[in-house]
Amino acid sequence: MANELNKEAIKELLYKMADDQLILGHRNSEWTGFGPLLEEDIAFSSMAQDKIGHSLALYTLLQDLGEQDPDTVAFTRNANQFRNCIFVELPNGEYDFSLIRHFLYDTAEAIRFEMLSSSTFTPLAQVATKIRGELRYHTMHANTWIKQLGSATEESINRLQKSLEFSIPYALGIFEPSPFQDTLKSEGVFEGEEVLQQKWKNRIVEVLGETNLTVPKWNTVVPQFGGREGKHSEHLQLLLEEMSEVFRSDPSAEW
Amino acid sequence: MPATTLSVDKIYKLLEEVKDPEIPVLSLVDLGVITHIDIGDKVKIEMTPTFVGCPAIDYMKNDIITTLGKHDIDAEVEVNFRKPWSSDNISEKGKAAIKKFGLAPPPNSKLFTDLEILENAQCPRCNTTNTEIRNPFGPTLCRAIYYCNTCKEAFEQFKPI
Fold first, then answer.
1. pTM for the whole thing?
2. Hey, which residues 148-207 in chain A have their CB within 8 Å of chain B?
């Protein structure tokens, strides 16, 4: 039961997940009208809608724990109050970077929700069970393109490899250690970032093994931490200003 | 209508009038999104979205209240994830309605472990499985896009989930 579990620990977990979903959902939506082909335009737009929906479900759980309503939380906080990892706020860049980020992030996210579907915090377990099913389409989409473009032409392989090497330090930032990890683990809410990271590495290596892409040497990578503590790149504040522009123009508007 | 003359069956029957706004031949009951009905001082209905980010959920919720209101029934609707929706919750009648509407109904979601099961959906027009998936994402969250090699035309499938 929630009232017996450590609420602060659960809130920290929910905020970072919800913020990741909202920010990456916004980035995905920036592909609407710009996809390299119509199918990808639709895919990224559709995944954007899923992710923003996932953020709403998670912000609603936070509201049930006493936090402010989802719109206020999503649209009125400053960058330093967001707990998303830096990886999701980086600009879309070229399609190769967006695709690599989609693959690395969504693989982690799919495993995180799989793990949470047996959480002792029942409301989260229920939402996770639902989201897990939807994410199969996201990871399937990512894997299909990574396998195809990761073994296609010299250009596609080189571009993906370059983006992969750029992205890995940021991807490791997804698993930034949490001050609450022992509590979450002992209370059975969440097994923790380390377990998640290991499972993620195994799955990433498995998919990359079917391509001509080279798996990074993990021990030489320095993870880009900070996002989970509210320390972000300069890109987040700009994104938030654009995302909340309409909301801020009339916060009391009825839609 | 006084609550004492109501029954859960009667409410289900009335809810057949409420249709999926994106597939207007399919009732919410056949779609399988109504997860619980309780009759007390008020009629309490629990429902769950097909997809978490489904933008039609508030519309459906209000539609339930309005429709029951027309029968003088005061209803309250709660959206939750207590019984998460799966495409397997769509009734046989619902699947037939989806097909008639021109969409391929979802195959059993338990068979769906990777992309392969999604490769060859049955064309809702000519019934061939000589089809190919073009995009696991479509015009709404719950649809995928296919191409039928026999009809030489695209069609959409209600996704298994």
1. 0.92
2. none
